[in-house]
Amino acid sequence: FNWSCNRLHHNGTHAMRVNALEDSYIYNNTFSDNSPKRKDSEITGSCRNVTFYKNKGAIYVSVGGEGLVFDKNIFPYIRSAGLTIVRNNRPGTFSVRTGKGKMAVEFTDGRMFSTKQTWSTGKFDVTRPEYLPAASRFTMEAFGFGVSCRVTTYPLCAVPEKDAVIISDVSPSPLSFTAGSKDGNKVTFTAENLKPGRQYLVKSAGKVIAGQKADKDGRISFVHSGWKKTRKFTIEPAE
Questions:
Q1: Is the model's pTM score more than 0.90?
Q2: Using CA atoms, how far apart are residues 13 and 162, in angstroms rounded to an integer?
Q3: Which residues, at least 6 apart from 56, have a Cβ–Cβ distance to it below 8 Å?
Q4: Please, is 47 exposed, middle or buried when counting C-beta atoms within 10 Å of its C-beta (0-12, 13-18, 19+)?
Q5: Which of 12, 64, 139, 158 is an S-S bond match for 81, by CB 3.0 to 4.6 Å?
Q6: pLDDT tens-digit profile of 57-116?
Q7: pLDDT in tens, 156-213
Q8: What are the angstrom distances between the C-alpha of 66 and each of 23, 63, 122?
Q9: Where does 89-216 show beta strands of DSSP type E?
């Protein structure tokens, strides 16, 4: 079952309700809902192996089932009661919740992000963000009623060549972060949302370690591999 390019508007309880769906692909839809009671869509626990790709809408998404993948959607809230992967979600800040299930949140471009636990009850486990060659990610697992986190993404990416890199203290203004890894591990860092054509400097320990002009998309990249200690990096415009 493939479902695409629809504009769905509903004044009842759900913008979209999916039940007993298996091996399906739902993509490029826009959902809207004027329900005064609940602004969400519902995918029930009988669904299996369903992928949602590049959908958007001012709605909540409530998920049940197994093998559910959300990829490159624009959803402010995703709630899961099953086994779910949330990949490359937007906007810059969104919320995720799992109850009696497990959820993995990941960014295949190595997007830097932070998490803040906002609610919980019962036993649960939330891992710290990790940055691996394939993706940056964290997982949440609830053994009781559930746990919620708010995820904030930043215009920075970190992609290690082999070993994991640890990122902390990310700041959008000034653009900075602290990183550490195994010495010799090459990590490619990318800064985004810069002014195209403007020269930028990358500083660490008060010294300029790289200089680069932002490309037409407002991005610069640099590689670092000396990790005998953690380092703080700052990206700022050249004078």
A1: yes
A2: 47
A3: 29, 30, 31, 73, 74, 75
A4: buried
A5: 64
A6: 755 667 777 888 999 999 888 888 888 999 999 989 999 999 888 999 999 999 999 999
A7: 999 999 999 999 999 998 899 999 999 999 999 999 999 999 999 999 999 999 999 9
A8: 11, 9, 22
A9: 93-98, 102-107, 111-121, 124-126, 130-131, 136-142, 146-160, 166-172, 175-180, 187-191, 199-204, 207-213
